[in-house]
Amino acid sequence: MPGDPLGYRAKFGVVTPSVNTVVQPEYDAMRPYGVTNHVARIHIPEKPIDGDSGFQELVRAIDGALDDAVERVLSCAPDYVLMGVSIEAVYQGGVSAARAIEKRLAEKFGPLTLIHAADALPAALAALGVDGGEVSLVTPYMPDADGHLRGFVEELGYDYRRAIHLRAPTPLQISHIPEADVRTALTDLARDRPRAIIQFGANLSMARLADEAERWLGLPVIAVNTATYWHALRRAGLPDRREGFGSLLLHH
């Protein structure tokens, strides 16, 4: 039987929160010919994030609706399932939490290859030659997230220099953070000369800005959506390079 006429190289299923307006267009912009992206929405409420308890509530809402979204996207028989959300595994315990999510989904739906930030970010750092030392973060979160992010970075074997949190008051408003604010944060973080800067928050548009920032800051800047999509392409055995999304997709 003939294969998919558009996704003849790979079909990527993508699950991302219902409020996220950035993952789908950024993934589509990075998509090479012969690869297709198919999005299912993780339904979450649009409500204020009130401190650490509010963030924990948001993470629980994402986790509670994740399985239904995965079930929907699996109906198109994707080769890989991409998690277009960067905070769930990190906020619940890092790499071990990501493995628990993989195990839960596999037990429920059968074997599947899940691509997520907890694997993509360390793979991206290694590809860029960042084999240790200090990394800094820019995020759209409230400062309450800092301890969770520090734990994730240190679990990967890196030193946590510092983070700038851009304090989006709701999940939807992450996408409304002005680019000028992100540029200012990146410039500030670069003054410490960390080995790399990582951006968290899949609803914060930074795929193209990271490309520019690497040139004017002179150090690796890893956008989480770029790292996740790059990792999916390489796991699929696809060597395609894409200009405009930083050195990760251009050289690795």
Automatic annotation (TrEMBL):
Name used for this protein in its record: IgiC
Domain of life: Bacteria
Pfam families found in the cross-reference section: Amdase
PANTHER family: BLR3294 PROTEIN
